[in-house]
Design goal:
The protein contains 2 helices and 10 strands, in the order αβαβββββββββ. The chain is of the alpha+beta class. The chain has a single domain, classed as Lipocalin, CATH 2.40.128. The chain has an 8-stranded antiparallel barrel. A hairpin with a 2-residue loop joins β7 and β8.
Length: 145
């Protein structure tokens, strides 16, 4: 697990250099590292994907994260912000990096490919930001490897 984590941080660092989501809308703004950390640290994001609930992700100030999926299953991992990139790692099969884009007060996570280029997949929208915990109980916890 420690070796995977070191590799993940290396990938996140590499992806963080010079990565920016290309958008045609002039009001879209890609957040920088400090803005991502300020927005994310200590907050819970409540997401939608293609207009449907995508769960909630509680970001701890120490880099840990808990993601509660719409079905109630919870996973634990880490989050890292580097330059214009926010990356999550929930295990060897669950990780990804994103540009955080703000447009008129609405935030979305635009997916990036493994080499830091904008991905053609759909963005995950932040429907609401709160400071409430995601509410996982011990029997709901799942660790993916």
């Amino acid at each position: 697990m420690k070796r995977r984590m070191i590799a993940f941080i290396g990938i996140a660092t590499a992806l963080g250099f010079g990565v920016a989501g290309a958008t045609s809308d002039a009001v879209d703004r890609v957040l920088g590292e400090d803005e991502i950390i300020t927005l994310t640290s200590g907050k819970t994001f409540h997401y939608t994907l293609n207009g449907r609930p995508r769960g909630a992700e509680q970001h701890y100030t120490d880099g840990r994260v808990t993601w509660r999926l719409p079905d109630g299953l919870c996973m634990h991992g880490v989050w890292v912000a580097k330059e214009e990139t926010l990356c999550y790692y929930y295990g060897s099969l669950r990780y990804g990096c994103w540009n955080v884009i703000e447009s008129d007060g609405v935030y979305r996570h635009a997916p990036l490919t493994w080499d830091g280029k904008p991905d053609s997949g759909p963005s995950v929208y932040v429907k609401r930001i709160s400071e409430e915990p995601v509410g996982c109980t011990p029997q709901q916890l799942a660790f993916l490897r």
